[in-house]
C-alpha cells in the first residue's frame, strides 16, 4: 500500500507522497514588478497543491542538522539546495514526507500555517527550477543514433565507431533553456543550396521536437578533478523532461564539421518539476548490455536505468484533439546518466549545481517508439496522420506535449508535462 497524505491526492496524480518533486514558483496574485525575488521561491508538488518550502523553513520545521540554519529555501532557485548534496536532500525528503503524512499533526492541524504553505497549483506560475550555468546534450540512444545515421549516411555502418566507446555529446546553449508552456518562435537560418544557387535563407521548413530527459547536477567538481563513476550518482539530484527543439534543415547544413549550432540553440524546453533519484529508485532497472565493454573509467558496478514510460502528443494548429505520436521509455538509453556525468568530467571539466545534462533523443526499437519527427517521417519521406491532419514536420500553431510517468502497484511517480506551441518566425527587414 502506498504512503497516505492528509492532502487528497487522486490515484491518477503524478505527485503523490512517494514523489515530491521540486520546482520554483511564484503566486499569480503577487505583482512581479514589485518584488520578484520575494515572490519567487522553491516548492514541492503534492497532488494538486504546491508546498511552499520558504514558509515551512520560516516556521522552523526543517529542524534537522543539515537544514536547520540553511537559507536554501529562501532563494529564487534550487541551486543552493542542490549544492548541499544527497544527505541534505534525504533529510529534506524525510521532513516533507512526515509533514504531509496523515499521521503527523504539525501542518495538518495548524489551519493558518496550512493555508500559507499549501497553494493550489492553479494559483501559481511555474518557473525554471534552477539557474542553468551550462547545458550539455548527449546522444545516448542506440536506436536514434542508428536511425539518424541511416537517414543521412545510408545503412552501411550507420553508427560511428566511437559511439560504442563513449557517450557522445556537444555543448548546448544554456541561455535559451525555457520552462514548459513557453511559446517557440520558428527560427531562421540557412539551409542546403539547390544546385548552384546560394544557400536557402529563411524560416526553418523542418522544425522538429526531440523527446529527451535531462539530469540536473547537484554538487559539482573542481576544475581539473574528475568525478569517479562510482561517485557519479551522488552528483545527480534528479531528472526532468526535455524537448530539444531542432531545425533539421538548418542543422544538416551547418553541422559539418563542428556539429549543431543555430539548428539547436534557439529553444530547449524543460518540465518545471525535478523528480529526485530517490523517488525513482523503485523503478530502477538494468541498463542494456554494452558491447564492447566500456573502458575502466566508465565501468559501473551497478548499471541502472529507470523504467519511465514516455509519450509525445502533437495537437495540430486549430484542432481540439492531440494525437499520441510516440511511446518510448527512458530504459532504452545505452549510456546511463552516471556514465554521462563521469565522462563529462574525465578531462577535468568542472560541473556546477544546476547544470543540465540532456540524454539526447530517446527512441525505442519499434516504429511507435521513435523520439522525433525526423525518424517518424524518415526525414519527410512519409507523413503522420494526426486525426486527419497530415504532418511531416511541425507547422505554426502546432503544440507539442511530452509526459512521463512511472506506474507503481498503487501509486504513480510522474513528471507532469513539458509543452510548447510553435509561433511564426518574426519578420525581418533583410
Task: Write down the CATH topology of the largest domain.
Answer: Fumarylacetoacetate hydrolase, domain 2
Radius of gyration from the CA trace? 22 Å
| The number of domains | 2
Q: Distance between termini?
A: 64 Å
Helix content: 10-25%
What does the overall shape look like?
globular
CATH superfamily of the largest domain: Fumarylacetoacetase-like, C-terminal domain
Tell how many strands the DSSP assignment holds. 26
Q: What is the residue-mean pLDDT, rounded to a whole number?
A: 96
In terms of structural class, how would the helical and strand content be classed? Answer: alpha+beta
List low-pLDDT spans: none
CATH architecture of the largest domain: Alpha-Beta Complex
Major sheet characteristics: 8 strands, mixed
| Count of runs of 4 or more consecutive helical residues | 10
What is the CATH class designation of the largest domain? Alpha Beta
Beta content: 25-35%
Write the layout of secondary structure elements.
Layout: E1 22-27, H1 36-39, E2 41-46, E3 49-52, H2 53-58, H3 79-84, H4 86-100, H5 111-117, E4 118-120, E5 124-127, E6 135-138, H6 142-153, E7 169-171, E8 177-179, E9 184-185, E10 188-191, E11 200-203, E12 207-208, E13 211-217, E14 236-243, E15 246-247, H7 248-254, E16 268-270, E17 275-276, H8 277-280, E18 284-286, E19 304-306, E20 309-315, E21 323-329, H9 337-345, E22 356-358, H10 373-376, E23 384-386, E24 389-391, E25 399-407, E26 412-423
Amino acid at each position: 500500500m502506498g504512503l497516505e497524505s492528509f492532502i487528497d491526492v487522486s490515484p491518477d496524480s503524478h505527485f503523490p507522497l512517494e514523489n515530491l518533486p521540486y520546482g520554483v514558483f511564484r503566486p499569480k496574485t503577487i505583482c512581479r514588478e514589485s518584488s520578484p525575488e520575494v515572490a519567487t521561491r522553491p516548492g514541492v508538488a503534492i497532488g494538486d497543491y504546491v508546498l511552499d518550502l520558504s514558509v515551512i523553513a520560516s516556521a522552523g520545521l526543517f529542524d534537522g542538522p543539515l537544514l536547520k540554519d540553511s537559507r536554501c529555501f529562501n532563494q529564487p532557485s534550487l541551486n543552493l539546495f542542490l549544492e548541499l548534496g544527497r544527505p541534505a536532500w534525504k533529510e529534506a525528503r524525510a521532513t516533507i514526507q512526515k509533514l504531509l503524512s496523515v499521521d503527523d499533526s504539525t501542518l495538518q492541524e495548524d489551519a493558518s500555517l496550512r493555508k500559507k504553505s499549501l497553494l493550489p497549483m492553479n494559483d501559481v506560475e511555474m518557473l525554471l527550477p534552477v539557474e542553468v550555468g551550462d547545458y550539455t546534450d548527449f546522444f545516448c540512444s542506440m536506436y536514434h543514433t542508428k536511425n539518424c545515421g541511416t537517414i543521412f549516411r545510408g545503412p552501411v555502418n550507420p553508427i560511428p565507431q566511437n559511439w560504442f566507446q563513449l557517450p557522445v555529446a556537444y555543448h548546448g546553449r544554456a541561455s535559451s533553456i525555457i520552462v514548459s508552456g513557453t511559446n517557440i518562435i520558428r527560427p531562421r537560418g540557412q539551409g542546403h543550396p539547390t544546385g548552384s544557387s546560394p544557400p536557402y535563407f529563411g524560416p526553418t521548413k523542418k522544425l522538429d521536437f526531440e523527446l529527451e530527459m535531462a539530469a540536473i547536477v547537484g554538487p559539482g567538481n573542481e576544475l581539473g578533478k574528475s568525478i569517479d563513476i562510482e561517485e557519479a550518482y551522488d552528483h545527480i539530484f534528479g531528472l526532468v523532461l526535455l524537448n530539444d527543439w531542432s531545425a533539421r534543415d538548418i542543422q544538416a547544413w551547418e553541422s559539418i564539421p563542428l556539429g549543431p549550432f543555430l539548428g539547436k540553440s534557439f529553444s530547449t524546453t524543460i518540465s518545471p518539476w525535478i523528480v529526485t533519484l530517490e523517488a525513482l529508485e523503485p523503478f530502477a532497472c538494468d541498463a542494456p548490455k554494452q558491447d564492447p565493454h566500456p573502458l575502466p573509467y566508465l565501468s559501473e558496478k551497478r548499471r541502472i536505468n529507470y523504467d519511465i514510460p514516455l509519450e509525445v502528443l502533437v495537437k495540430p494548429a486549430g484542432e481540439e484533439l492531440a494525437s499520441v505520436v510516440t511511446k518510448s521509455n527512458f530504459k532504452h538509453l545505452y549510456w546511463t546518466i552516471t556514465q554521462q556525468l563521469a565522462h563529462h568530467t574525465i578531462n577535468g571539466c568542472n560541473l556546477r549545481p544546476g547544470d543540465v545534462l540532456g540524454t539526447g533523443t530517446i527512441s525505442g526499437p519499434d516504429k511507435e517508439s521513435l523520439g522525433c519527427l525526423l525518424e517518424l517521417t524518415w526525414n519527410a519521406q512519409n507523413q503522420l496522420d494526426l486525426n486527419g491532419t497530415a504532418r511531416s514536420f511541425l507547422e505554426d500553431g502546432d503544440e507539442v506535449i511530452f509526459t512521463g510517468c512511472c506506474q507503481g502497484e498503487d501509486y504513480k511517480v510522474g513528471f507532469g508535462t513539458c509543452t510548447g506551441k510553435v509561433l511564426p518566425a518574426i519578420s525581418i527587414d533583410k
